[in-house]
Amino acid sequence: MKKNDTHPFIFDTGVWLGEGDIAFNMMPGESVKCYMRWSFTEDGDKVTSMQEVEVAGGGDVVKNTMVFSRKGDRFAVVLKNDDLGELEGTGIVDEKTVAWEFRKKTSKVEGYEAYKLQDDGSYIMKAEYRSPDDVTTTITGKIWKKSNEE
C-alpha cells in the first residue's frame, strides 16, 4: 500500500500503543481502563494489523486481525477474531480523520471506529459496537506511534 504522509496510522508499517476507557450500556456511569497495541505490516497493496486490547486488572486480551485495502479517500477493512468471526466494512479518510464502520447487513455486529489526528501525531479515538442482543460497547482513548524507548 502506498505510504500516506497525512495518516501514518493504518497506512504505514509500525507499532502503535494506546490507552483508554471501555464502557458498556448495561453498566451506566462505569468504565474500565484498557490498553491497546497495534502492529502493522505491509503485504502488497494491503496493510495487515494485529490489534490487542487488554482490560486493566487482568483478564483476557482481545485479539483482532484487520486487513486494510485503500483506494483514494476510501478503503475496505476486514476484521477477524475468535468471537465475531469475520466482519467486512468500509472506511473513509480525510485530512484529519480515519474512520470505518461495519453494518448489520454484512455482519452480526454493527459499529464504527473514528480516529482524529492531533497536532503531535497522536490520535484521539472513539469506537462503538452493538451486538445482536443490544449490548453496546464504547471505547474512547488515545493512540500514538511507539517510540524506541517504549
* Rounded average pLDDT: 89
Question: From N to C, what is the helix and strand string?
Answer: EEEEEEEEEE
Q: Biggest sheet, open or closed, and with what strands and sense?
A: 10 strands, antiparallel, barrel
Number of spatially distinct domains: 1
Low-confidence stretches: none
**According to CATH, what is the topology?**
Lipocalin
What does this protein structure show overall?
This protein is mostly beta strands and 150 residues long. It contains no helices and 10 strands. Strand 3 and strand 4 (61-71) form a beta hairpin. The radius of gyration is 15 Å and the shape is globular. The model has no long low-confidence stretch (mean pLDDT 89).
Topology:
Layout: E1 14-24, E2 32-43, E3 46-55, E4 61-71, E5 74-81, E6 85-93, E7 97-102, E8 110-117, E9 123-130, E10 136-145
Antiparallel strand pairs: 1-2, 1-10, 2-3, 3-4, 4-5, 5-6, 6-7, 7-8, 8-9, 9-10
Q: What's this, in brief?
A:
The chain is mostly beta strands and 150 residues long. It contains no helices and ten strands.
Provide tags for this entry.
single chain; 150 residues; mainly beta; Lipocalin; ten-stranded antiparallel beta barrel; 10 strands; 0% helix; globular
